[in-house]
Amino acid sequence: MKPLTSIEIKLCQLQAKIFENSVKKTKYSSPIFIRRFMLSSIAKSFDEQTFLFQSISTEETFDLLDEEFGVSNYGKTKYTEDQMFWIGYIYRCLSIKYNLSSKTVYNLFNAREIVKHYNIGHTFDIVQAAERMMENINYENDISKKSLDCMRRLIYLESVNSLINKKVTVHIDRPIGFNHDGIIYQLNYGYIKELKTLDNEYQDAYILGEEKPVKIFEGKVIAVIHRLNDNEDKLVVCNNDKEYSNDEIEKNVNFQEKYFKHKIIR
């Protein structure tokens, strides 16, 4: 990884100095200061590199934090000035080198965790220390997994959406009136074998326009219920010429979809 540029070093030094001064300038604990700062609008200005162009002294930052989070004298734990200087520096280095917000960096290494890295980390070059810390939490592997999961999700969504206006055969395993863990199915509900979900299960589908329990249903996919907080979407299938509005679809599937954030794709 490349060394820090002169501007990046300046940002790291400024943040480190604020952290160092916090030991004497704040009445609350160092962990509380760290959390406040890393979640603050000041930290965001460091993320955006606009702090360099603001006429804010390191002293004024503490008043700004009090304005944002309120005055406090809670907590007694104080890290040393050397520890705080290094913590401020490494936080900014991590943010810069991995293109992460201060909030994200703090979520990776909170106030209690970051100080544990000081004993070993402060003996290394700052960029090397940042790399070692990220390796210790398998950050690159985690990113690769997230990228792969995202790609699989996009491929799945494309496959589901491509079924709109296509004819399918639905095998019903939860007919009208079926009781599934207290949820009474008000529609015939089943699956198609043409597509599998991310969980390697057959793709589920709601049936509209059929008022009696059935075992097999052939119809056309008129919409997709895209769940925003779940891995699996649902097809909406019917075999009549009736035009169903989004509101009508919502009303029909509400008995189950009310538990999920979703939108209708047509």
Structure explained in plain terms:
The chain has helices at 6-25, 30-38, 41-47, 58-69, 81-97, 102-108, 111-114, 118-121, 126-136, 139-161, 246-257; strands at 167-174, 179-180, 183-184, 188-196, 202-208, 216-227, 234-238, 262-265. It is α+β, with helices and mostly antiparallel strands. It folds into two domains: 6-137, no CATH class; 151-265, Inorganic pyrophosphatase (Inorganic Pyrophosphatase), CATH 3.90.80.10.
End-to-end distance: 46 Å
Amount of beta strand: 15-25%
Q: Mind summarizing the main beta sheet?
A: 5 strands, mixed, barrel
Shape: elongated
Radius of gyration: 27 Å
Strand order of the largest sheet: 1-4-5-7-6
| Low-confidence segments | none
Give a count of the beta strands, DSSP E runs of length 2 or more: 8
Indicate the percent of residues in helices. 40-55%
